[in-house]
Amino acid sequence: MSAIINPQARKALSALNQIAGAARNCVAERLQRDMDKSEGPSRRDIMQQFLDLKRDKGEKVDFGIGEVQSEIYTALYVGIEAETHLVCADSQGSPDRIRQRSR
């Protein structure tokens, strides 16, 4: 209800929806790319680990494509949040100090 009234809340919800859409698209693109290749998964990263879990134990542990998308959403959100902190810190300090902190 507050999103209807408050423009900032509406913008925040829109941004979260964009992240959710990006997560769904990332998973869908990976699944499509891996189906197009006969030699198996294209990358060994965290998304592939979640997809492997879904494939190998998904039914047993109740971990489906929705859970994969949710985990990727979380990873994207955390990455965006970390980037935001760096940008805010950068605006309050010298770029050299920020680079040293991020190493």
Could you explain how this protein is built, in words?
The protein has 103 residues and is mainly α. It has one domain. 83% of the residues lie in helices and 0% in strands. The protein has helices at 2-5, 7-36, 46-61, 65-92, 95-101. Helix 2 crosses helix 4 (65-92) and helix 3 (46-61) packs antiparallel against helix 4. The N and C termini lie far apart (42 Å).
Describe the protein's topology.
Elements: H1 2-5, H2 7-36, H3 46-61, H4 65-92, H5 95-101
Helix pairs in contact: 2-4, 3-4
Query: Largest sheet at a glance?
Result: none
Q: How many helices does DSSP assign?
A: 5
Q: What is the strand content?
A: under 5%
**Mean pLDDT figure:** 82
Per DSSP E runs of 2 or more residues, the count of β-strands stands at 0
